[in-house]
Amino acid sequence: MKTSKRFEAAIEKLYIAFHNNTLNPECCKQCAVGNILNNTESWKYLSDDHGSTKLNYIGNFHQNLGRRFNGYTPLELLTIESIFLKACGYKLPLHHKNGRPDNLKDKEVLFKGLSAVISHLCRIEGITNIMCYSKLLEYKNDKPKYQLA
Fold it and tell me: What percent of the chain has pLDDT over 70?
């Protein structure tokens, strides 16, 4: 199956973050989109609320110009993050008063989030869901069971 460079890069970055324990849903640099964008937080200025899929003025400006960040449009990035947070158990938008998972570092919580993100990335690429790659996210004793080829 042929996939795009943006897809391969996103999967690799998320895989590394998951296994290096540097995936943090509440940090704009270490969440799903933060990792896809090389641990930068500039994407957070595309919306007024973390977890929202509503573009603000800046987000709409970039979307309308056709700008892409590591291959993804602003709306695609916000959707990826929203899917990740929901699958991790957050009530959106992210706010201290809204529901959240009890343990942010729980691998099961993060695995659910990544599984949802990977499924979504497949949808926007127009390819079959590759969650057979879920083996790459399997772990034992907090270490990856399998390595990337």
Answer: 94
